[in-house]
């Protein structure tokens, strides 16, 4: 089996696994087959990364026709890193779901849930690797239905309401993206990203108004899907009401797939030489800054622990768009923050879900003293939250440090104030959860030590995610250097 076909095989494997789910009678087999499929994909992406490191990035033709007529994948360093990240986080979340999914959905829908997860992650990988823009759109629509499905599958009134809101907003975003694709096709005559760039590089000045419209369509369309402020309105309801494993997947992976497509639109289709002539980066920088501040302010006023984390996601996506708005200097940091945030936010949602399942409480007021009953779970939550706040060594701090340096280098010193204010606001809503959980006699009264703690086997995937978070922080320089080499 040739190594260069592994990305395509991974997408096909997940889709094929999805089709098997309705045929499987026992849920434990559905869980085992799904985990095995993701394990195989994870292994193939590691092998592919080593192949790319030694041979360089490559285009992989799908079918009999070469580009620009045929469909192709581009497999580069960043794509391989994304493949490893997506499958690793999915494995950890699904491992957690083996023990806990029955708390969120009825037994007869468990196989359907794993069908949707396989389709969702498979479509995200298709978005990451595809070099054909319409093929990306097809994967977006497949993922759109699957991601809405893992929200409404809980089959409660609030889930259906949140899922419908998500579906409507996401379809609006998809429509804008499709319009952008149509405009690009009309001026380039191609759907292949490489050929689109070649044509645009020669005649973009002749279509400056159309390109301005196209950039606006992609920014708003993908901004809706990736929770760019103020287009995030669907996210708090969808993420807070979805099953815990769904919340973790939506926040840590789904949003990142759309951001990566946005990066490909900016730098692979248009290129840095073109986008600097348009105001798009300044708009993205402004919206990212607003998201960093206002997302955190909204989180402070939430009473539900999952809504706190959901609004924190809005703020953290703001950091990614802030980095993109800084231009080429911030691009590598945006990709690094995608990696760090994915593992950290997955850990936070899984911890929150464990606390809710063990106590039956969602409101922060009811979780006072939970540190005595669930010391390890809250400890993992607290450590993951330190990365969001920006404590040194952890990936959140690394991102903020490099963003500050990039702000100085671009002579935008005022932006450091945005980073500092956002970090302080992060502390305002994360620290009280741990403080009220561990301290205060009135909080600890009648609490049984470790009375509601999860078994070690259920905590293990969360522990691995937290350890991965530390690894990313400690090896940040090597990871950022690797990202930069892949962006050249």
UniProtKB/TrEMBL annotation:
Coiled coil: none annotated. Belongs to the CPA3 antiporters (TC 2.A.63) subunit D family. The chain crosses the membrane at residues 6-24, 33-53, 73-98, 110-130, 136-154, 166-187, 207-227, 248-267, 279-301, 376-398, 413-435, 456-474. It is a multi-pass membrane protein. This is Monovalent cation/H+ antiporter subunit D family protein. Its main location: membrane. It comes from the Bacteria. Keywords: Cell membrane, Membrane, Transmembrane, Transmembrane helix. InterPro entries: CPA3_Na-H_Antiporter_D, ND/Mrp_TM. It is found in: Cell membrane; Membrane. Residues 130-425 form the NADH:quinone oxidoreductase/Mrp antiporter transmembrane domain.
